[in-house]
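ERR on first pass: missing label on line 2. Operator R.T. fixed the label and resubmitted. Corrected input:
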Amino acid sequence: MKPAPFAYRRPGSIAEAVEVLAGEPNAKVLAGGQSLVPLLSMRLAAPAMLVDINGIPGLDKISVEDGGVRVGALARHAAVLASPDVRRVQPLVPLALANVAHATIRNRGTTVGSIVHADAAAEMPVVLSLLGGSLDVEGPSGRRTIPASELYLGPLESSVGHDEIAVSAYFPALAQGAGVAFEEIARRHGDYALVGAAALVDGDSVKVGYLSVSDVPTVVDLTGVADADLGEAALAQLDPAEDIHASAAYRAQLVRVLTARVVRSAREGIQ
Amino acid sequence: MTEELHDVRLSVNGNTHEIRVPARRLLSDALRHDLKLTGTHVGCEHGVCGACTILVDGNPMRSCLMFAVSAEGSEITTVEGLTNPDGSLGHVQQAFLECHGLQCGFCTPGFLTTITAGLRENPTPTHEEARDMIAGNLCRCTGYQNIVKAVERAAELGFETDASAPSSTTGSAS
Amino acid sequence: MTTKLMGQKVQRVEDQRFLRGLGRYVDDVAVEQDVLHAAVLRSPHAHARIVDIDVEAVLDIEGVHAVFTWDDLASCTPQMAEPLPLLIPHPALTHGRTQYALAKDEVNYVGEAIAFVVAEDRYIAEDAVGRIRVDYEFLPPVVGIDAARAAKTLVHDDVPGNVGARMEQNVGDAPAAIAKAPHRLELDLTIERSACMPMEGRGTVARWDPDLNRLQLWTSTQTSTGVRAAVAVKLGLDLGQVDVITPDVGGGFGVKINHPWPEELLVPMAARVLGRTVKFTEDRREHFISSAHERGQVQHIEVGFDDDGRLLGLNVEFWHDHGAYTPYGLIVPIITSTQLLGPYKPHNYRVVFESLYTNTVIVTPYRGAGRPQGCYAMERTMDAIAAYLGKDRAEVRAVNFIQPDEFPYDQGLIFQDGRELEYDSGDYPAMLEKTKALVGWDEFPAFKAEMAAQGRRVGIGLACYVEGTGVGPYEGAHVHIETSGKVKVATGLTTQGQGHATVFAQLVADELGVKFEDVEVVTGDTRRMPYAVGTFASRAAVMSGSAIHLAAKRAKEKVLKIAAEALEASEDDLEIVDGVVSVKGSPGTSIDLGTVSVLSNPLRYAFDEASKAATQFSVGDPGKPPVAEDDEPGLEGKDFYSPERATFASGMHAVIVETDPETAEITILKYAVVHDCGHLINPMIVEGQIHGGVAQGVGGALYERMAYDESGQLLNASFMDFLMPYVTEVPDGIDIDHLETPSPLNPLGIKGAGEAGVIPSAAVFAAAIEDAEGLTIKAMPISPSELYALRLENS
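pass 2 clean. output:
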């Protein structure tokens, strides 16, 4: 399984990357490559050009900002997972990241890359959505911030323009008195989740984000719902599908079970 | 139409190599066919099996999910680089020998590099941590029981021989 | 060295190269040379007529050297244009069919080879494959056993009902016995398709040597001699012009016994035509869609039994899905039919199967080769009988065992080797006691109650099997002691990780009295041993082990004869230790093997120290010819082992599982194996085989299945969606105990061990989950989603 031919550019700056992208409508950005390269090898995608951003300095920064933590486009999952700043400021991120594939994949794959890839079966897109985070992108008309709520358009489709490059993702901090939890159930350790859930509890507010239950990362507001009804209330807003690994009914069952678990766990985690 | 070729300098196991390859040449193929280092094996080419795992600046990565052109500037370690300079087995290799941690040997290089890095990061793993260290690599022959034992034995051997060795990102065994 | 190596955990010699990354697998062969690489255009449709193939666009691509379709095959030889061989014919296989090396008019499974491209590298070859235009006329595909049986459409127009074969065997009159039995039960079971899935796929490298007029072929195979014969015939070469060398092989588990693969013929054909070395290495997707699968069956069982659960009659009908073609004949369903009986006496047994065509990948043996399916049928029946009678599942089995004093026991059937199914030795009652003790069978009810009080569900399962191993027709060995004192050993069957080079060296070191390090073993090279069958059916240790033992004996006889003369002693007074022959009790009177080797070959010239040293001894009578009439020069031994029948290993597995009441996830709490493969040559290697087999069994019972959709597309043709276990999915530790009932059929008393770990897996997990859940399990494998569905159905 070898990729089809492509042109290759390795820009030395964001500006150069934007310029290159603008010149080639059928180009894709290469960062971690852990999702992209298999698609190329299986010839499910055949871009005319790859723009390799791994050489751009300073893109791997992880920094604490006012009210949250910012993760650069080249920050590997492993670095974000290991960052004491991220763990302190927004513990949901490492909780979710620990479930991303296996350690070896996390050494190369990037958190921002996962967010842009827009896979509803992945952990980071729904975490960003649940937390109300955002993505900064740079394009020919400059830099803009895309809130998570405007980021996901459809399966594997984000609103990042083809001539824009993601520069960083911003995760809001965990507020005082709020709690988070994450749990997913997969067939094998490290596989894509059959169903996954992330909970954010803040005072009375209860929100749960789901992976692998819909085409786009989906967040459900369960504020005010009684504990016993959490699962059914969530299901009313979700449409779990069937595939070769699980029936729709089983996914629905996992939604019930995981919703209850993550909400309880998030509550228990509140300091 | 001829494909554009790129000059790539790869630093592998402490040696520098200059190759000229298309951008789409996977790092796994470059190591095997351009550098003739056939110890790194290809099991799936979609990043799942781990047979192609090498160390990039000391960190395990799937060489089938990287392009050779992307690897310039990094220090790569393959299984060949885990053998001691005098040809004797490094301690992870030695542990596999003692514990019968391999049968057909095809997945083994990926385990050896992964465990070498894993023990460098965590030289005294618990049993659970030893299992977790190898949880991303597939083996069809051994059923993993002896590979777990090999991780634990390698940890023992690492302590016995090597407490003062520098943790290096070049090709020597550790 | 005075300790025998037989039974020792000797470290493996092959590890020295594998651990350093210096193994030489087929894709590593010729990597230093200028080699051309091949890719294959494979059918994207499960069933279609080929209207036209257009390769025009391909020839213009820079770096492409050739493209072949079926039309080109006839210009190689007429045989190349004919279908691939049907390797194992059988009278019951009335409608056997095989594919062409490249599809002629029709394709019958997604993955079937249509065109073969050879190019500068694999990347370019794949580009070229992508540019070939094929016009297809779609035909309705047949997918699954139900569709095959219904036969609304046919896979092959000339195979009515999609039935390739129907075979019936009878011992006594089972229907009558069942009719008048005090109790009767019926079961309908299914078991799904899986596959061997070795970490290394298939591959072939070929070089035509114009100077020697010979073809050299490296291929990742389980049978060097099989491939050699097939290639010679198909390419119109003398057998003597073809060398097949088996490189290091990254696992086989059965899939590499089938031969010749189309590529095994196309690669040497292209090598000859192009005058270049050509290499084909399949990728993982190709392995999924163009190698082989196994395991899928639908079974209907009727059983009659008495109040104790003793079998009075067993009537089994099953339908076996063999995919689109039948190159390997009926081996798998025949093994199911015969090995189904396990350690039991059915008294009256009827087994009928239909082997059916579907538009899917071919089905050839996968570790167990039909035994897992048979064990599943038998063990589910035993569990059903126990449930019906309210008896302990172990007791019901014990009542049916063949007893230790009943061996040899003739089951009255014909086995896969065409010989009587006669069990040579075993002790099933003792094995059951060990198994119960190992898993804690009697203590389990209390444990289950304790867990239930905590709201946890646990269950225990037990399954027994008997495995016919070491089938013939023969294997051979050649032992050569060189003048250096080193011993070179060759046997023709192959190795895929079983440690043959180590195990066989142990046998030679023991028999000859040489140092283990001085013995070098080569397997699967037709230049070194051209008479061989192959590695399958857990036969290598028995067949080649015995042959090597016998060959080493012959070499030793010659050693002693020459040494006795040289030392002026009697043969009976001699011993060989660490490669030195000396008179017992008189160590000064000695001669080393290298010198004996020199003496065995009366050359005129002295080449080395050994030759010079030999001149101090005088052997032979100057009045007689230097090489006697009944003798040969050199210190060699060659022998073959050909058994009367298979030898029967056996074993029992027991597992304790926990099922999650909410998520239906299944966790393995304890896995116990008691295993009898007679005498063990290297216990470390045997245990490794059990570990690996159990892991494949866990995969097959809980995770792996081939998911075909109705149009015959394989939906999970990758490691992402075909779920092989990682370390996290196998039990943390397997409890293993051994029993040794030696085989009376071979000199070492050994039985085969390679497949055992995987045989009872589906049965034992079905039993344990059933026990945990209190519902009936008929279909395996089972996932949490399927268990959840069963719960809903049953509530």
